[in-house]
Amino acid sequence: MSKLTSEVLDLAADKIQEHGWGQGVESWAGGGGGLCLEGGIAAAMGLSIDPMRGHGLGELTLCPAYIAVHEYLAEALADAEYQEPWFWNDRIAESVEDVIAVLRSAAAIERVKESGRYDDEDQPLPVFEDAA
User: Fold this and answer.
1) pTM for the whole thing?
2) Burial letters 37-47, b for 16+ CB under 10 A, else e
3) Which residues contact 74 (CB under 8 A, 6 or more apart)?
4) How large is the angle between the packed helices 64-73 and 96-115, nearest 10 degrees?
5) Is the CB of residue 8 less than 8 Å from the CB of residue 44?
6) Which residues pair with 21 in a beta bridge?
7) Distance (Å, rounded) from C-alpha 6 to C-alpha 8?
8) Taking a C-beta distance cutoff of 8 angstroms, is the pair 43, 103 a contact?
9) Residue 3 CA: distances (Å) to CA of 6, 7, 10, 105, 114
10) Cα(128)–Cα(121) distance, integer angstroms
11) Cα 118 to chain centroid, rounded
12) In Å, how far are 4, 26, 66, 86, 87 from 108, measured between CA atoms?
């Protein structure tokens, strides 16, 4: 049974809360440093990713949950060296609360889209305070 994008994002937040938050490449698998933002999404999807060898990264970056977070962080990363979620996690996020807020906010936006009630590009979407 496949999960909705909002469910994957909420599960990613749950996984990070459960395993702790980490920064840097070693945080992908949660092996001692917790899970990073992308590692949480990968864990929620059940992906086995080896970032040092590039295994599984393509699958992750094509995932709707990853794309939703990427779009959510686009403005926050507009002037950054890299416009990718890993850069936000490793260089901009200051706490696990920041990461959880981004995942929960992106999940809330996706829930609105999934409900079919979102049909106007100008309609405001929900945002958690202190996200991005």
Assistant:
1) 0.81
2) bbbbbbbbbeb
3) 83
4) 110
5) yes
6) 35
7) 5
8) no
9) 8, 6, 11, 17, 12
10) 19
11) 21
12) 12, 29, 14, 21, 22
What is the distance between the alpha carbons of residues 5 and 114, in angstroms, rounded to a whole number? Answer: 8
H/E stretch holding 59 reads helix 57-61
How does pLDDT run along the chain (132 residues), one tens digit per residue? 588 999 999 999 999 999 999 987 666 554 566 889 998 998 898 877 665 555 556 778 889 999 999 999 999 999 999 999 999 999 999 999 999 999 999 999 999 999 987 555 555 555 555 554
Domain ranges of the chain: 5-115
Contact 89, 37 (CB under 8 A): yes
The residues, any chain, with a CB within 8 Å of residue 41's CB and separated by 6 or more, are 8, 9, 12, 60, 63, 65, 66, 69
Place of tokens 């949660």: 30
What span, in angstroms and rounded, lies between the C-alpha atoms of 117 and 132?
A: 24
